[in-house]
Amino acid sequence: MHDENDTGQGEVTRLLISWRDGDSRAAEALFTLLYHELRALARRQIWRPAGESTLNTTALVHEAYLKLVDGSRVNVRDRGHFFALAARVMRQILVDHARSKAAAKRGGNVPPAPLDENLGGTSPVAEEVVGVDEALKKLEALDPRLGKLVELRFYAGLSVEECAEILETSPRTVKRDWQKARAFLYHELGRQGGP
């Protein structure tokens, strides 16, 4: 996903170090430099059929940026760690958005609608996002490394090799763990009646 030469690895590293040291301008420059890659990351995270109204890619990237910068001195080690952190923030934004959508459909701050309009229940996409998040939380509780791997592979779109580097393990172990994590999530989502 992330070609080291795409945006100048040296510049990304310099900006990450400056940001970690408290330079807020470095965060803005990093955001500008990696904007297209962050949009690609956001596109992968937004699951929606045509016509489903939810956060769009741009809104998700900008909201993630605000949350990342709000963390002030974030201790980001490298490019892969940055994208893993961005993926985690985007995941949480989408889950919060899906939960608020589900709450609104159940009547939270919305005037009552005729009964037949409520028969559809909550959005299937919102239910999927929340269901995947709940299954991932169970996985993280059982095995934090597997949970981290799902974030890196599924949400951040990192390669096996990039995950191995971040998790400080071998690509072979990552492949084996990825199979375990997918099997667990498939089982959990099946129990929930999900995808």
Outline of the structure:
The protein has 9 helices and no strands. The protein is mostly helical and 195 residues long.
Describe the structure.
This protein has about 200 residues and is an all-alpha fold. The protein is built from 9 helices and no strands. It has helices at about 10-20, 25-35, 35-45, 55-70, 80-105, 125-140, 145-155, 160-165, 170-190. It is globular.
List the helices and strands and how they pair.
Elements: H1 9-20, H2 24-33, H3 35-45, H4 57-70, H5 79-105, H6 124-142, H7 144-155, H8 160-167, H9 171-192
Helix pairs in contact: 1-2, 3-4, 3-5, 4-5, 5-6, 6-7, 6-9, 7-9, 8-9
- Shape designation: globular
Structural class assignment: mainly alpha
Radius of gyration: 18 Å
In helices, the fraction of residues equals 55-70%
Number of strands: 0
Annotation field: number of helices: 9
Chain-averaged pLDDT: 77
Poorly predicted runs are 1-6, 111-122
What percentage of the residues does DSSP assign to strands (E)? under 5%
